[in-house]
Each structure stands twice: as C-alpha cells, then as structure tokens.
Amino acid sequence: MEFQYSKEIDPNVYETDGLSYGIPLRMHKDQGEEIKGTLRAQRDWTKYVQPVHGYHGNLGDPYSFLSVTVPECLPDRLELISYANEYAFLYDDWMETFDLKNDLGGTTGFLETFGAGALDLKIDPKARPEKRLQAQLFSEMMAKDPKRAVTTMKAWARFVQSAAKTRSEPFETLDEYMPARAVDAGELIWFGTLTFGMALTIPNHELDLCMKLARPAYVALGLANDLYSWEKERSAAIRAGQDYVFNAIWVIMKERNIEEEEAKEFCREEIIKAISTYCQTLEEARNDFSLSQDLRAYLEAVLLSYIGNLVWSIYCPRYRDF
C-alpha cells in the first residue's frame, strides 16, 4: 500500500502489551478533521436525542480512533466517517443500557433507524431523532460519493440488525462467541467505513472472499476490544441488571471456570493466534494478483485497523474513564 495521508509512529512512544505482532502504527496527518466530525456528532446528539456532555467516544490524547484505525482515509472524508463512528459509539453505549436477553423489544424503535428505510433521504417529521441524524449523515455521504455511500449504508444497516441479535443471548463457549464477536466488532460497519473513507470498491464477485479473508483480523480486533473494554462493559451490565456480559472475558471465565486475570491472559493468547493467522493470510494475498487491487488494499487497511484499535484501546478515555 502506498502511504499518502499518514505517518508511522515511533514504536518506542506507545505501549502494545505484547500484542502488536510487529505491525507498525500509523496516524493520519490531519487529526483536526476527526475532532470536527466527532464534536459535531456530539452536538447533534445532545440537541436532538439526549445530552452527552463530557462524552468519551472517538477522541483520545494522543491517539484518536479514526486517525489511527483509518490512517489512509481521504482527507475530505475523515470528518464524515468520524461523525458516523461517534454516532456508532453513542448507539453502542445506548445498547448497553438494555438487557437484550429479556428486553429485545425495547430496542425496536432504535433499530428501525437502520431498518428498511435506511436509504431514505426524505424524513417523516414524526421520525425518531436518531433517524433524522442518520438520514442527514447519509445525505452528506451521497453528496460526496453516491455509489459508495449506498454500499456503506447497506453494510451499516446489516451490522446494526445483526449486532442486536448477537447480543440477545449469552454464549457458552469461546468457539461460539468469536464468530459473533467478529460481527459485533463491526466487520460490516468497518467494511463500510474503510471502503467509503478510502474510496475502495470491492467487486461483487469478491465480497464473500473479502469477508472470509478478513475474518481472523476482525476476531483479533474484537478480542482486543473485549480485553480493554471489559471493566466498562461489566459495569454497564451490572447497571442494566444483566446476568451476563457480551465480552470474551466473561465467556472464558464461565467456560473454563477460571478467574478474571487468567481469562485475560487466555484472551491475549487467542488474540495473537488470530492476528498471526491473518498476517499469514495477508502475506499470501499480497502476492495473489488474481485479487483486485482494491481488495488487496482493503486487507492491508484492516491490518492497520487492528494495530490502531489496539493502541487506541490501551490509551483511550473511553475505557479508562467511565
């Protein structure tokens, strides 16, 4: 991949807790666009949905989420995908307030935002405020890149519907949990984010292969997220009155009948297994010129997303101050 919009960060200035697998961290050269998009999303959510003053989502110091997970985002699209991702974080935190095993019906109204009308640009005056914000975002994306905007919004809609279902029941084993976690980690929403942000087009005949090749990276990304968000998500589950936590640490503790620290160490081992598998897959893909150039670029971008997510997770206020 040719790097135009990012710079490599000196590995001596950040921690990876031994989970980097030698992957270099890169950061977008214009973090200001991420700040603009993130704060605009917070202002809109506060105005139309509910107050979120002092909210911890994308932004961190020195590493903000989109700047390190999509370091090669086109500069004129970074503000938009930052707005979208902050919206997703706000949605995710809202979902954590529900006991989805016993109260799935309570999410129905919110899920309608990404239902059959996800591609509608005309808004019913009676529509939920979340829907109005989603339609506003979609309109802005359509103005920038209509074809990829539609592809992205369809992927995001599938993600929201799938994620709600995956959280509705606790998992008994890690083998059952990991495919669901890859979905919940956002392989669909992240597919949309990367393809729109980097102006990539994956041919229809390569879509299934794309998801298959990238799956180990999304497993690694999801497990890393679970490792560092465990305390936040456990606290949210307790507040919501849930008797389970949608998190690998909880699954590992229950399946293996071990304590929290042992479960975290086991999770670290699984992260390394998954990302090592992906690195091998990526190395083969780099030399497979039967694959489209954009698919190969996408797979490279997913690798950068893994290390960016890892470093951000270690440092971000979202998982440290809650």
Helix-strand category:
mainly alpha
Straight-line distance between termini: 37 Å
Q: How does the overall form come out from the CA principal axes? A: globular
Strand order of the largest sheet: 1-2
Count the DSSP helices. Answer: 13
Please give the radius of gyration in angstroms.
19 Å
The amount of beta strand, in percent, is under 5%
Could you tell me the number of beta strands?
2
Q: Which blocks of ≥5 consecutive residues have pLDDT under 50?
A: none
**Percentage of residues in helical conformation:** 55-70%
Mean pLDDT: 89
- The SSE order reads EEHHHHHHHHHHHHH
Quaternary state of this entry equals: single chain
The major beta sheet can be summarized as: 2 strands, antiparallel
Task: Describe the structure concisely.
62% of the residues lie in helices and 2% in strands. The longest helix has 34 residues, at 207-240. Helix 6 (146-166) runs antiparallel to helix 7 and helix 9 (207-240) packs parallel to helix 12.
Please give a structural write-up.
With 322 residues, the chain is mainly alpha-helical. It contains 13 helices and two strands; from the N terminus they run E-E-H-H-H-H-H-H-H-H-H-H-H-H-H. Strands 1-2 form a two-stranded antiparallel sheet. Helix 9 (207-240) packs antiparallel against helix 11 and helix 11 (260-286) packs antiparallel against helix 12. The radius of gyration is 19 Å and the shape is globular. The two termini are 37 Å apart. 44% of the residues are buried. The model has no long low-confidence stretch (mean pLDDT 89).
